[in-house]
Amino acid sequence: MNASRSADKVSSCRYRPIADYALIGDCEGAALVSREGSIDWLCLPHFDSPAWLLKILDAEKGGYCSARPAAPFASTRRYLAETNILQTVFTAEGGRLELLDFMPPTAADHRDTPSAARHSRHSVVRRLECTDGSVRVRIELKLTPGYAAERAEPVHCSSRCIVVRGASEQLQVQASFDLRADTAGVITADLVLQCGETAYLALTAPPGGAALSIAQVEAMRTSTHDYWVTWMRTFRYQGPYRDWVVRSALTLKLLTFTHTGAVIAAPTTSLPEEIGGERNWDYRFSWLRDSSFTLMALLELGFEEEAQAYLQYLARVSSNDRERLRILYSIRGERAGAEVLLEHLAGYRGSRPVRIGNGAADQRQLDVYGEVIHAIYLYARARGADGTRELAQTLWPTVRRIGDYVAAHWREPDSGIWEVRSAERQFVHSKGMCYAALACALMLAKDWRISSDLSHWERERQAVRDYVWQQGFNSRVGAFTQTVGSDVLDAAVLRFPLLGIIDAHDPRMRATVQAIERALLRNGLVYRYLTADDGVRGGEATFAICTFWLVSNYVMQGRLAEAEALFEHVLSFANDVGLYAEEIDPVSRAQLGNFPQGFTHIGLIGAAARIAAARRGARPFSHHMLEPSLGQ
Predict the structure, then answer these.
(1) Distance in Å from the first CA to the final CA of the chain
(2) Of the four, 116, 352, 414, 480, which is 20 to 30 A from 305 by CA?
């Protein structure tokens, strides 16, 4: 036991806490930067490209890019106001060093972005400036192409430019100072900056182009700043907790793939839900189940262009799979590849396996049909009469196909919202979302004046409504449970009032909230479930999104003071730059799982918006009440 604890302590020292990282990106690829100025995760040019840097998943084999003072230092960091430019300030003996980390967006998705901000290549830029005294700077760069499975071959183009080749990809390293590469392929540099002096390091894929000058780097910094400031001009949320909503919105934008409108769940793979466990998944895909909440967040905040692009992505992938929908797709709208284990990697603090791809892609999860149609319904209602004919012509075939599928298959078991890897079951949340699918489809048909005979949808809508109401609520437990006939509680049913499936004041929903408070709430944070067999060994921490769902339920039940107290409690678990992973350990306060997690930030936005509505005296909204809801 003592030897095991000692080994874990050594392992912990070699890995930074997950919350130690901040995200930068260009809406196509992404990187994680530690408090100490080390980029320990980098996928270029795209989110799902093989990682060039992945020390976060293997402290020995994984690559990194470190830029910091050579002497001992203290550091603080922040994002520049309403941007995704990360500023880290190092205070060392003799001086102060400022590091700006950013990735210039291609900006092809924003009509108002100055042309100077548009770049054909994808770069991570690290701008160094001495702001006081004199600082000796140490640069270390270890590139590990192909998830550290390929040999890195550095080729000197000049003393300040090195191209590193993997088996199939190349990356260019440029700097304003001399670089050296050793026989192991590690690139290093040492330089001294006096007050007012600047320097830069840039990693670019694909390689090409002339060496950058300091003036060009300054222009890239300015144009990147302008891009984010311009994008934020459409941000219209003015309620409480505005700074938190701003950071969540900017994070959500970083998780959006420019070329298709897809929104990925997180920019990382295999960050564990339990240290040393096997609950390690690849989240660099777009999940259909996130669709209605993502669309709501984008519309609520004023980002209609992003909402439209995301809806077009949903419609495209929905029309491509005519038999049945997959639960997740690649950023390009393709089916996800097979799940592959990277056995050569140790995993974060020994949490194995490291996975690329996601095996859940082939599961049957009936709730996704409700998610997609509900997203279409939300967008159509937001547009109102404007564009009705165009939306009907474009989207009705998708709505019709999904409605017919749900009417025919809603009685079947599935794997549920949490993608259990055990046997399929009759998940109550899935049935509720099947009701939402048919209810929204019927309302869209009415709004779009569709003349087809849809009596079978009406009949099945009533049938699934009765089923959820009669079979989904366990009177012995006093709550809607995870599966029909079980005693297991599941925080997923907290979504029902938020989607308008049931009124928040309904006695059975109130009883369900109380049961979840008793069984799943620990130190002010909510587990998704505790006792179910999900087919995966080990345990997990609380799910941050579930706690935000509980906050929203409090607001909708008129418990505003409790909602605000719980919301602020959850805010206390964010890292120093306002980011959340998927899970939070309620005892150690550690963030766990892939990072940052888009769904968590979407939950924050929704909860803040409901609190804002309640403070104004308005009715805290669901995502437009379904007619009729289950409770009527």
Answers:
(1) 57
(2) 116
Three-state SS at 58: coil
DSSP string covering 205-251: ES--SPPPPHHHHHHHHHHHHHHHHHHGGG----SSSHHHHHHHHHH
Distance CA 488, CA 418 (A): 14
Structure tokens at 325: 């929908």
* 436 three-class SS: helix
Under 8 Å between Cβ of 602 and 253: no
Check residue 107 and give its pLDDT: 54
Torsion-angle region of residue 178: left (phi > 0), alpha (psi -120 to 50) or beta?
beta
| Ranges of residues in the chain whose predicted pLDDT is under 50 | 1-10, 108-119, 624-625, 627-628, 632
Q: What is the predicted pLDDT for the residue at 390?
A: 84
CB 64 within 8 A of CB 142: yes
DSSP β-bridge partners for residue 130: 97
Residue 120: predicted pLDDT: 62
The Cα 35–Cα 43 span in angstroms is 19
Contact indicator for 240, 612 with CB cutoff of 8 Å: yes
Q: Taking the CB of residue 166, how many other CB atoms lie within 10 A of it?
A: 18
Distance CA 294, CA 383 (A): 16
Q: Is 47 exposed, middle or buried (0-12, 13-18, 19+ CB in 10 A)?
A: buried
DSSP string, 504-550: TTSHHHHHHHHHHHHHHEETTEE-S-SS---SSSS---EEHHHHHHH
* Residues 6 or more apart whose Cβ sits within 8 Å of residue 130: 95, 96, 97, 98, 193, 194, 195, 196, 197, 198
Cα Rg of the chain (Å, integer): 25
311 closest CA partner among 367, 366, 380: 380
Distance CA 442, CA 419 (A): 28
Residue type, 373: I
φ, ψ of residue 88 in degrees (nearest 5): -115, 130
Q: Angle, to 10 degrees, between the axis of helix 388-409 and the axis of helix 304-320?
A: 50
What's the confidence (pLDDT) of residue 12?
Answer: 55
Residue 337: partners with Cβ closer than 8 Å, 6 or more residues away: 330, 357
pLDDT at 124: 97
Residue-by-residue DSSP string for 446-492: HHTT--S--HHHHHHHHHHHHHIIIIIEETTTTEE-SBTT-----GG
Alpha-carbon distance 499 to 492, whole Å?
A: 12
Angle at 535 between CA 534 and CA 539, to 5 degrees: 65
Domains of the chain: 2-233 (2.70.98.10), 235-615 (1.50.10.10)
pTM flag (> 0.85): yes
Which H/E stretch holds residue 612?
helix 598-615
User: d(Cα 209, Cα 64) in Å, to the nearest integer?
Assistant: 24
Please, which residues have CB within 8 angstroms of residue 184's CB and are 6 or more apart in sequence? none
In angstroms, how far apart are the furthest CA atoms of the chain? 79
DSSP string covering 120-146? SSEEEEEEEEEEEEEEEEEEEEE--HH
